[in-house]
Amino acid sequence: TVMHCLPLGWMQKMNLGMPALVLVSISSAVFPQNTLAQSCPENTYEISRHETAKNIRLRCACNPGTRHVKGHCEEFIPKAVLRNGIPMVVVEVKGKVKAFITSGDEKFKVSSKNALIVNHIVTGEDSHIVLQLPNGDRIAVGPNSTITFENSDDDLDLSITKLIGLIRFDHPGNTEELKQFARKAFAKSKLWTRRVLGRRFRVRTPLAAVAVRGTDFIIEGTAFEEQIVSVIEGEVDVIPLVKEDQAALVLKAGQQVRVGKDGRLSKPTDTRPGTLLNNWGERTGLSSLPSFRPK
To answer: What Å distances lie between residue 113 and 157, 245, 274, CA to CA?
Structure first.
């Protein structure tokens, strides 16, 4: 079990020989005075900062891949394992949600209300998690779902190797605060962050790739190893990966297509976008997706 230093806890003041005092909050840990400065301690990142003429108040959290031990944050997930994960900012968590990062036979459970590097998520009944990538793309995982990501070498793709249940993708507006927070939280993943901030967003599953055109869409992985792609807003290109002799299909708002186990695309069905959205809301309790807010 991983404990990332999250809630506002013990506050320590230190006289720096300047008019300002620095107040640092990191869980319930007591950090030695000589580690305090106008920035967060080693192996932590800044969640929030409040400055006045008399003091600076910082809230800090342990870096992804580290945990709180005896008053400080120390590394416990090998860097080689972290490279297999996807950096994500946590927007909202409800109910029973388990997140892991795996590499070969190594598996680590991770937990945070702020930022994760993860490649496997499992949600329970009446549970969900909403995440945002460093570029602002939002991912909502519905109840009773299992999803496994792969950190693809292809700059265009967010690669999903396993999907059971419901997952929704969109890109909310006004993501500048999110991007600033991601730069702090994933300072040790600068290469990945720089790459993802400027890339076109495409989702790749074992059956199909879904190229996004600034849209809102859902992918459902069924118990029959099929996938259903539904478009709420905008357009997506559904590109079959198994049945290579079949042409790509453009789905518009209100349309659905079923991708069979053999990779074959069904004929699209038409309905109202509002119907698809209502169905998502009834099944997940997430009709309106929350956006990142500084904690």
So the answer is: 26, 44, 31
| pTM of the entire predicted model | 0.82
Digit-coded pLDDT (tens) for 150-199: 876 655 677 888 899 999 999 888 888 998 899 889 887 665 565 565 55
Q: Are 207 and 222 in contact (CB under 8 A)?
A: no
Give the residue among 249, 259, 217, 248 at the shortest CA–CA distance from 234: 217
Residues 210-225: tens digit of each pLDDT: 766 668 999 999 888 8
Alpha-carbon dihedral of residues 128, 278, 139, 94, nearest 10 degrees?
-20
Q: Are 121 and 129 in contact (CB under 8 A)?
A: yes
* Least confident range of 73-82, 203-212, 226-235: 203-212
Both tokens assigned to 142: 């519905």
Closest CA to 66 of 105, 139, 128, 117: 117
| Cα 84 from Cα 105, distance rounded (Å) | 13
What is the number of alpha carbons within 13 Å of residue 177 lying toward its C-beta?
11
The residue behind tokens 């959290």 is 61
Question: pLDDT per residue over 69-123, tens digit each?
Answer: 887 889 889 988 988 888 999 999 999 999 999 988 889 999 888 999 999 999 9
Residue by residue, DSSP assigns 274-295 as HHHHHHHHHHHS-SS-------
pLDDT for the residue numbered 261: 84
Asked if 215 and 234 touch (Cβ cutoff 8 Å), the reply is yes
Backbone angles phi, psi at 186, to 5 degrees: -115, 40
